[in-house]
Amino acid sequence: MLKNLPKIIQHLHSQDPSVRRQAAEQLAEGDERAIYPLIKALSDPSAGVQDAAMRSLIAIGGEVTAYMIIPLLREGTYLRNTALIILARLGSVTVPLLYTLLEDKDPDIRKFAVDLMCDIKEGVERERLLPMFKDENANVRAATAKAVGELGYEDAIPYLVDALKDEEWVCFYALQSLGELEARSSAHHIVSLLASPSEVIRYSAIETLGKIGTPVISDTLISYLFSASDDERSAIVKSIVQIGITPNMVGLTEHLLRMLKEGDWEDKAIACRGIGVLNAKNAVPLLVDLAGSLDPALPDTEERQYLLRTTILAVDSESELLKLIESPATKYRGKAFAIELLGELRSKKAVPLLMASLSAMSRDLRRASATALGEIGESSSVGSLLATSQHDVDAHVRKAAIDALGKIGAPEAF
Question: Secondary structure of 125-189 in the HEC alphabet?
Answer without folding.
Answer: CHHHHHHHHHCCCHHHHHHHHHHHHHCCCHHHHHHHHHHCCCCHHHHHHHHHHHHHCCCHHHHHH
